[in-house]
Amino acid sequence: DGGITQSxxxxxxxxxxxxxxxxxxxxxxDAMYWYRQDPGQGLRLIYYSQIVNDFQKGDIAEGYxxxxxxxxxxxxxxxxxxxxxxxxxxxxxxxTGGSNQPQHFGDxxxxxxx
Amino acid sequence: GQQVMQIPQYQHVQEGEDFTTYCNSSTTLxxxxxxxxxxxxxxxxxxxxxKSGEVKKQKRLTFQFGEAKKNSSLHITATQTTDxxxxxxxxxxxxxxYFGSGTKLNVKP
Lengths: 114, 109
Description:
heterodimer, A: mainly beta, seven-stranded mixed β-sheet, four-stranded antiparallel β-sheet, B: mainly beta, six-stranded mixed β-sheet, five-stranded antiparallel β-sheet, 11 strands, 0% helix
């Protein structure tokens, strides 16, 4: 089945530690996105990528980094500079980066601070 | 900056009652999408509206896009327990999506 796989499902981070969240898609989609969801809030865009080897900052990129070396993969690193990283992180993809494309979401990674 | 406001934040209804959630944008949108997120799950795309004044139906769900393309609504007729979840709108201003904060629907059997 085609889809988006996020791993791990739960992740714990120690203070001062960088952690990387994995996102893989086999939908052959060009565009990929990372969102952060806090309780009772909507989705806030962290980073997005419309093609391989290119990505753009979203609304809350500070303290995060990404790479897009392969079409299928868009990992997100939560750095120690992100002071409030506890949240639910969702990865999404769309066929192209166009504004009329629906986004397909993974099951998410829940990150907590130890 | 761009904002998409969604109300209400929560709605509790008795099974069989109707439900409506509203989205309002500060600027004109190129299109608006609606997503549903079940408890513990991820958002799932429901529909996209593009034209001014557009109305689309999916069984008991009716979606509307305002004439000015600044607001939208989702109406569920005769709710069922399977409708439980959070409904998000996502407005696109020709460049990026802006998700509303969502309306969490609880349906009491």
